[in-house]
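User: I'm curious whether this sequence folds into something compact or stays loose and floppy. Could you predict its structure so I can see for myself?
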Amino acid sequence: MGLDVSSDDRTSLATTTAGPRQRRLALAVVLVSTILFLIAAPFAKVQLRPVAAFIPVYETAVFLIDLVTAVLLFGQFAIFRSRALLVLASGYLFTSTMTVAHALSFPGLFSPTGLLGAGPQTTVWLYVFWHVGFALFVIAFALLRDAPEVPGRNARAAIISSVAFVVFATGSLTLLATAGQHVLPAIMQGNRYGPGAYLIALGGWPIVLLALAVLLRRGPRNVLDLWVAVVMCVQVLEIALSATLNGGRFDLGFYSGRIFGLLAVSFVLLVLLIENSRLYAKLVAGQAKLRRLSSADALTGIASRRAFDDALEQEWRRAMRDRVPLALLMIDVDGFKAFNDTYGHVAGDGCLRMVAHALATCDSRAGEVIARYGGDEFAILLPETDLATASALSHRLCEEVRKMAVPNAGSSGAGHVTISVGAACVTPLRGRSPMRPTTLVEAADHALYAAKAAGRNRVAELAIQATSWPAAIVRTTPSEVAENAVGAKM
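Assistant: Here's the prediction. I'll summarize afterward.
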């Protein structure tokens, strides 16, 4: 059954508007139920063999379905604080507890006359109380839809009070149908209905029809309203088959009516379970979106500082485990403050986006992480890369940025946007060095400052020895010189 509960962005059946597909599906369920009812009705009094397992299986299923539905609705109430949800949850809990009393008192199930001091009229009156009581809860649900929310601090107390009320009501009605059965009109004569059977129709049908009328009059505004209305429609058919048109227990109406009842109590649980699946899917999608947002820099679209820090920790551990080199490039846009002062912050943002794009599209390799480290600084993490390879890539990055030819009147000498790069590399060894992932960042930063101090628009390299940090060798190379050297070798 495809229930379209995902067409609205709101997060509860009690707030999600019932769309055309939902309404067509609900109408189809009612029409099919009505057709099956019309087929079964003429044969309702046909006596069938008693099936010993039918009642325990049926009532166990009803008990579990209603109990789970009540728990889910109480959970919805705890979130949305709706008094209508609280009442409906209490109604399903009431039917669940009444099912227990009905099963215990059913003659021949646990004892010839039933438990709890049951008499010949106990079970049938519990059936009436069960269905009339649920209909009254549904009427209250419909009338309380616009009631003020329960204050958050009182939600738990409201649930406890509702549970206590349901237990009290079930106990009182059970006591009336057992110890007080002599004051109730006789309905059953053995397993057949007696002259008083009309009391079931008078007691059950009007209240159930009234509940349906109140729901429809106020209009099924949301998915929950719609399927509760379907439940009441099917319950009308259930009462007609199993307690009005039939002749007593174990005839066709008795069995088919209870199957209708089992279907009726399943509808709301089904849509609640589908809603929970939908909400879980939305939660997973939301978490994935949050991870994407937190791992991407909002301005440039490349990895964020947080994503870089996570990747550095992960790659450091892998490099230590596999004993492979790990390189890092720290990159700074030369004279960026002067660029902002000359062209404005909007142009500055555009410049950073262009630089980020140039870095991301230049000889990208699997596993590398290109991130905005902060302000006008970028970082590129290069797993399994030695210093020579990292240095060569650094010079190509400088050339890519120069090719953009973005004017920078504030630049000292170049006249266009350039970058300085600090390259560092280390092969971390487990247990033999006090170095940490931040050591690599400090080394690349140290090299970057050396590049800028040497005149900017160049690359500085720093080789870290695993047992001698912080001692290191720094070599700076103007990027133009390096590019010419590379071109000569080619």
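Summary: Strands lie at 188-189, 192-193, 326-333, 369-374, 377-383, 419-426, 458-464, 472-478. Residues 1-10, 481-490 have pLDDT under 50 and may be disordered.
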